[in-house]
Every structure is written in C-alpha cells, then in structure tokens.
Amino acid sequence: MERLEYFFLKRYLKAPKRNLFRFSFVFMVLGIMLSVGILSAGLHLFQGYESTLKRLLLDSFAHIGISSSTGSLLSEEQTALILALATEKDDVVSCVPMLNFQLMAQSGDKIRAAGLKAYPEDNYQSYAPYVIAGKPNIRESEVIVGHYLLQELGLALGDSINLNYPRLDQITPLGIPNAQFNYRIAGVYRSGYYENDRSIVISSIADARELMMNTGGYSKIEIHLQDPEQAALRSRDLVSVLGYDYVAIPWNYYAESLLRLVAMEKWLIFIVFSFLVLIAGINVISTVSTIIIDQKTEIAVLKTLGANTRSIRRMLIFRVGLVGILAVLAGQVFGALLSWLVEKQTFYQLKGDVYFIDTLGAQITLPNLAIIFLVASLLVFVCILIPLRQIERLQIIEIIRNKH
Amino acid sequence: MILSAKHLSKTYIDSDQTIKVLIDASLDVERGDLICITGKSGCGKSTMLHIMGLLDAPDSGELHIGGKVVHSNSAEAPAIRNRDLGFVFQFHYLIEDLSALENVALPMLIAGKSEAQAKARAKQLLAVLGLAERINRYPNQLSGGEQQRVSLARALANEPKLVLADEPTGNLDPAHSNEVWEMIRSLNRDLNQAFVVVTHDVEAAQKANKSFELIDGKLLRIDA
After folding, report:
1. Is residue A145 pLDDT above 90, yes or no?
2. Residues of chain B whose C-beta is under 8 A from some C-beta in A?
3. Residue B122 within any structural domain of the chain
C-alpha cells in the first residue's frame, strides 16, 4: 500500500462520520444490508431445518439395525451373540434388542395404523428425551403413544387405547387371528419428527409378545454410535464378522437421500438469494459512479499532482469497500435477528406432513457466516470494480478546463 | 535548462471550425526564471501551460524536461508532474475534505514520503507563506488569497524545478492579487524558484524577467 493510500485509509477510519457515513451511501448500505440479511436468514433457517431433521432422524432410527436376513425373529442366542460382538468397540453408545411391527390403534370408531416398538425393561434412554408427558419407564399394560396419533384418536394421557394385531401370516379356516388388548397411555411421545409422532406406540417386550402371539425373540438389535457417520462402515464390519445370515442396515439407508436433498435445497436457496446481493450491487455501481462524477475535480487534482490511476482506484476501493464490508456485517447481524424472530414467532408452524418436522429453528454456524461474508463481500467488491474503469477515462485537462 | 518546448502546435476542432491555438511555439525555461505569458482570453495561453505541465499533448513539437523528451501520455509523466513540476491554477483546486496542512502534504505523500515528514515540511512551507495560524483550517474556512497561498505552498512541496501558474490571481481582488504576486516574486528572488505564469495582467507581467505574448497562436517575446 502506498503512502497516499494509507493516508486516506487512515482518514476514513479516523473520521468515519465525515468520510464514510454519507447520504450517497445510504441506499447502497440499505440494499446490501437487506439482501445479506435475507440471504443469512434463509441459510440459517435451512441450516436449522437440516440439523433438526438430521438429529431427529438419528434419534428416531437406530444408527445401525441388525436383523435376520430371512426376516424371522432373532433368537435369544443370536441376540446374545450380536450384543457381545457389537459392544466390543468403544464407540457404541447403546446396543438394545427390540421388537417392532405394524398394528392398528383404535379408540371407539377411530382407527389408525401405528408402528409398535418394544424395548426390554429399563431400556428407555433412546426415547426418554422425547416423552413430553407422563413417564418413559413403562411397565406391563402401559404404552407411550405419539402426540399426533393421540390427537387423531382423540385421546390423552391416562386414557385407554386398543391395539389390534391382525396376523396376516396365519390365516385359518376361521379367518384372520386377531390379537387385541387394551393399554393405559402412560406417556406422550413428541420428537418433532412428524412421521414418528403420528405413528409410534412404545410398549414393554412382554406386551408386544402377547400381541404378536409369540413367546421369544427380537425383530432386531438397535445400535447407537458416538459418531453416526461411521454407521455404514461399522455395518459392513459387523456383517463381515456375523456372516450373511444377518443384515446390518445403517441409518443412511433410510435417511441419507433425504438429507442430501435438504442440503442441496439449502445451497440452491443460497445461490438464489445471492442474486439479491447482486441486485443490491447495482446500487454499489451507482454509488461508485456518483462518487467518481462528484469528485472528478479531486481526482483530476490528484492526477495533476502525480498520483497514478491505480492509487486513486485503490483509495476509492478502500472507501466504498469499507462501507460495503460494514454493510455486509450489519446485514449478517440483521439476518441473525430475522432468523431469531422467525424461530420465536408463533403464528406460522411448519406442516409436519409436508416438511417432516413441525418446528422452524435457525442454526448459525461459523462456516455459514464465513461463506455469506465471503460471497457477499466478493459480489460487492466486483460491483465496486466495474465503475472504477471510468477513472482511467477521466481526462484531467477537460475537467480543469471546464472549471474555468 | 529545466524545460524546453520546441515548435509546439495545437489545433482544436470546434464543430465545423478549426482553431489553431499554438503555431510553432517555443520556450526555454532556465533555473531562476520568472516567465510571464500574456494574451487575450482564449488565445491558447492555458493550453501552452498545460502542454508544458504534461497535462495535454501537442499536435506536433517536442517537450524536453531534464534533457529528455517527454509526453503527457508517457509512463513517467505522473512522476515528472509530482517531482519536477508544481501547479497553481486560477481556482485553487484544493481538496475540500483535507485541511491546509494535508493539502500541502499531498504531493509529498504521492512521492512516497512519510506522513510525519510530509506534514513537517508542509507546516514549514505554510509558515513561510504566512499561514502558520491556518494550517488546520479547511479550504472553505480560508479567504481567496489564503487559498491561493496554500495552493502555492502545495506547488512548492516537492521542491520542483518549475512552478506553472495559470492565472493565479485571476480570481482574486487587487489586494489579494498583489499579495500572491509578491509571494511569487519573493520565492523567485530568494529561493531562485523558476516560474512560468500565464496571466492577462499585463502590468504584473512586466515585473517578470522574461515576458511573452501569445498572438494568433504565435508566442512572441515582448521584453527583449
């Protein structure tokens, strides 16, 4: 940086009110602030949506589910073998055998399809955080039911619910055998993941076996890992040890394509909203052009005194660039505020049946802030450079002569 | 020889009219010279000065500064304007956002001197020109004569070989005009500073050691 440029930069920083906060910058600053604010809010909200969806999916599905490759239940011996093998590694948070199957939940004349999950007694840690009413540690004849399923059936905590399990695989001359029992609702489950909240029923293993008309065995072993990203790798390792009588399905199998789609949508929104910054850049071009026209005499004087075009251009870049960067930062603060307001508002709720989750949350991450800052600053910088070519075309002599 | 203009010609085309403002004009400037160029309004005095100051290019002819042929479009032109030439215009052309001190320091900052050095020298120059009390004033807080003296101080900042002044008193009342002329003469006499002054003030021009008049594009010496 040359002495002249440094001198002017110092002046801009020392007396920002006189040099930077001028009326000619108002619309430029507003344009950048608004566009960066919208871009930031969009990205923070999509990031929040992506993170929430991922967290809920990881909490709702096992990171790895190991079951029999034939579809039959796992015997007690098989279960013991898998549990012993799976818990050998330190990265396993929990490894729980469970039963799950589809059934019908009924209350009066209202019938809904539901998915039953049953865990051995005292193994409630995986779903306990989402039990919003009642207790997670259920006993026999007690069930935990999803929030929306309860709503659809018109039931509440403490009420009774009928669960029917039609054995379609055991058709007899008398028809389809049907197990039907009545349970007390001891807990309400609400994770925010709509599909689960409208279908889940959690019971004890004994109750599930009674419904299934079965005496032993498990549908699968649910494994939760410290690092869910390792699930695919660990699944392959486990199958290679267990053999092909078993299948190990990582969470990615169910959810990765959805998460990739959400991530793609997030960046698509980012690109679309970046065009807003580009549109705001038109104000930057106009502001710089106005400054050049307003200060052409000063520019001519500096050129007369021997300043080269590059120096003058840099001085303008510093001046408008400083204002631009401050506007980008202000826009980022505005964006954070906007996403906070969207998160806190109560008049609009996400439709869970469309968007999978029903809460709109924002997440501000450092990489996203850096990306917004870099992209917005780059666009502003390019818009500053475009009109600066006018300086080269300024004819000193014409300006000095015209003043006469 | 500080500057030598040889056979300069310049023509302007104004709609369907061709105006020859300079025809074979030559001028040599030596150290300690105080040269005045007079002539009618629009006769080409300023054009002559602008060509000598590398602000404009002649249609033909050569300009030598420091023994080298130079041109307004040449790469070294900004450095020559900064180092070897000083400019004073009819309108002071001070930068409104800078104080008198900062305005005078500008050419030195462009030359690469430190801010401290530039300001120290600017302070000294403003004191010599009687503006020691006005160094922190902005141009709009100074009188016309003071503005022109600041402009003169700025022209002298890098100790140029030659100061080119275009109607330096053209915008001043007689009292301030005399003040500026006295300043020019004393700088020329005491510091041996060379000046080329374009003026329509024939009386003042007679006090110069070389006087020229531009008539119909031709530069004629009138004091010989």
Report:
1. yes
2. 46, 50, 53, 55-56, 78-83, 87, 89-91, 93-97, 106-107, 109-115, 118, 154
3. no
Task: Give the integer Cα–Cα distance in Å for B216 and B205.
Answer: 19
ipTM, two decimals, is: 0.90
Mutate to test the interface with A, among B55, B73, B99, B101 (most CBs of A within 10 A): B55
Tens-place pLDDT, residues A208-252: 988 887 778 899 999 999 898 889 999 998 889 888 889 999 988
Report chain A residues whose CB lies below 8 A from the CB of B94.
301
Give the Cβ contact number of residue A69 at 10 Å: 13
Domain span holding position B203: 3-84+160-221
pLDDT tens-place string over residues A105-126: 999 889 999 999 999 887 888 8
Interchain contact, A306 vs B114, CB within 8 Å: no
Alpha helices in B43-94 (DSSP H): 45-52, 77-83
Query: Residue A20's pLDDT band (boundaries 50, 70, 90)?
Result: low
Alpha helices in A164-204 (DSSP H): 194-197
Give A21 to chain B, closest Cα distance, Å: 14
Burial of A17 (0-12, 13-18, 19+ CB in 10 A): exposed
* Two tokens, residue B74: 């040449």
DSSP state for residue B142 in the 8-state scheme: S
CA–CA min distance A314, chain B (Å): 13
Looking up residue B59, the CATH number of its domain turns out to be: 3.40.50.300
Count contacts between A and B (CB, < 8 Å): 70
Distance CA A330, CA A323 (A): 10
The model's pTM: 0.77
Mean pLDDT of A195-216: 88
- CB burial of A18-44 (b: ≥16 within 10 Å; e: otherwise) equals ebbeeeebeebbebbbbbbbbbbbbbb
